């Protein structure tokens, strides 16, 4: 049913340009609240895991060049088990846009899927800086780097990327750290889940790039509403290295609920001198040629 609604909205929006701007937020909200899948599969997965109190599973993901241990409560695991893959379109974007001869940064690395993917795409001498603040996700991140023989090609910063160096309170859903953020947790997947709060170190992308002597050509940002903070702490990096930037795009109503300003991320990227494409849930920013 969800598939039919999304498809109909897309067809209607494409044939009426005025409706496109109105339809996209609704389409994105539908996709985030209920990803297109057979409802019976969702219910079967819920029934299968409802009595499970703790543990993890190891799943193979050829698109990511590896296998990964994931918490049994994670929505990442649920999506992998239902669809047999994870974020396929995003994976294609990474593979298409990453520069193998430069370093990469994975902000919001979680259990390491995209860290492993990017390290597998880079030349042997290049590194991926994985930024992840939550202890639950960090446990699996380190294990997955070891499992896939990527520890030598990854640098892990156990904290948040933000605009000012300091200590930060972060909201966390244990076992579902993919929804963790220093902003308010407003993602539909986090609704009704128990939230805990912890203190974590925070530093800017600019400082981390200098500390680890990186030459970033690609930055992926998944910060659950804190994307503007991340980018605000990357001004020098963006100006000097001009990396391609891929980050999550939220519907306006979720941005407001998280305490942000709709359109602020895109506006900042354009101020940085980037051509910005908002591609139904993901922002792809490519540096414009310098004048003269």
Report on this structure.
- This protein is an alpha/beta fold and 292 residues long.
- It folds into two domains: 1-36; 88-287, 3-Layer(aba) Sandwich (Rossmann fold), CATH 3.40.50.150.
- Helices cover 40% and strands 22% of the residues.
- The chain contains twelve helices and twelve strands.
- The protein has helices spanning 2-15, 17-33, 39-49, 75-83, 88-97, 113-121, 135-147, 205-211, 227-232, 235-241, 252-257, 264-271; strands at 56-61, 66-71, 103-107, 128-131, 154-157, 160-161, 166-172, 196-203, 216-221, 244-248, 274-278, 282-287.
- The strands form three sheets. A seven-stranded mixed beta sheet has the order 5-4-3-9-10-12-11, sandwiched between helices. It has a three-stranded mixed beta sheet with strand order 6-8-7. Strands 1-2 form a two-stranded antiparallel sheet.
- Strand 11 (274-278) and strand 12 form a beta hairpin.
- It starts with a helix and ends in a 5-residue tail after the last strand.
Properties at a glance:
Rossmann fold; alpha/beta; 22% strand; 12 strands; 292 residues; 12 helices; seven-stranded mixed β-sheet; 2 domains
Summarize model confidence as the mean pLDDT: 84
Helix fraction, binned, reads 40-55%
| Protein structure class | alpha/beta
Order of helices and strands: HHHEEHHEHEHEEEEHEHHEHHEE
Which spans have pLDDT < 50 for at least 5 consecutive residues?
Answer: 1-36
**CATH class term of the largest domain:** Alpha Beta
Measured by DSSP, the beta-strand proportion falls in 15-25%
Gross morphology: globular
What's this entry about, in short?
By secondary structure, the chain is an alpha/beta fold. It contains 12 helices and 12 strands. The protein has 2 domains: 36 residues; 200 residues, Vaccinia Virus protein VP39 (Rossmann fold), CATH 3.40.50.150.
